[in-house]
């Protein structure tokens, strides 16, 4: 390890020393690399690759909107009225008479102290249309009714006598809690009145 040169002091062999230092550094590097490779959580072959996200593009004419179709709008009074009017136009027939008044009615009426039976049949129709008939069996009366005006639960009619003893002119039928109220103009300005019941 020491050489003498011209009888002078011994010198260290610098070349051999550097070789050993380089070898040790290389070994340390190999060990550190191995430890890093085997570090917990990195897996046997290093860190797991990040997942790859593949973007999809919709085909022409298709969309990604999968939202359900909007529910139909609920009917409002205006819509219901429009639908009813459209239905009436399709049928070609007016429906002015309140539905609660339609059908056959039977009851008793009074005029100047006389009591008699009244039979009434009402059907659907518009202003100026034939909407039913009225009969008084005791007098052999038969009359046709033409609609003149309409309110919420009442109608006014023109009573046209066809046969027998009847009260012609204006008449009114109005729905009440007690039944169908019947009013008409009798002889000499007297009033015919009575209550009819649904049959």
UniProtKB/TrEMBL annotation:
Q: Does the keyword Membrane apply?
A: yes
Region annotated Disordered sits at 43-99
Bias type Polar residues, positions: 79-97
Alphabetically sorted, this entry's keywords are:
Membrane, Transmembrane, Transmembrane helix
Superkingdom field: Bacteria
Residues passing through the membrane, by range = 17-37
What is this protein called in UniProt? Answer: Uncharacterized protein
């Amino acid at each position: 390890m020491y050489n003498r040169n011209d009888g002078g002091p011994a010198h260290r062999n610098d070349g051999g020393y550097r070789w050993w230092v380089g070898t040790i550094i290389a070994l340390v590097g190999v060990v550190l690399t191995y430890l890093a490779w085997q570090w917990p959580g990195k897996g046997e072959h290093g860190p797991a690759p990040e997942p790859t996200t593949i973007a999809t593009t919709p085909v022409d004419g298709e969309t990604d909107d999968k939202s359900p179709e909007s529910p139909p709008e609920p009917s409002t009074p205006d819509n219901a009225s429009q639908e009813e009017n459209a239905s009436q136009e399709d049928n070609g027939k007016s429906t002015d008479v309140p539905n609660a008044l339609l059908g056959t009615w039977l009851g008793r009426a009074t005029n100047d102290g006389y009591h008699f039976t009244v039979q009434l049949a009402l059907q659907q129709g518009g202003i100026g249309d034939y909407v039913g008939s009225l009969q008084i069996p005791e007098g052999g009366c038969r009359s046709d009714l033409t609609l003149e005006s309409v309110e919420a639960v009442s109608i006014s009619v023109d009573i046209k006598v066809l046969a027998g003893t009847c009260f012609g002119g204006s008449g009114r039928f109005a729905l009440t809690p007690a039944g169908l109220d019947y009013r008409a103009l009798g002889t000499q300005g007297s009033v015919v009145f009575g209550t009819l019941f649904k049959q």
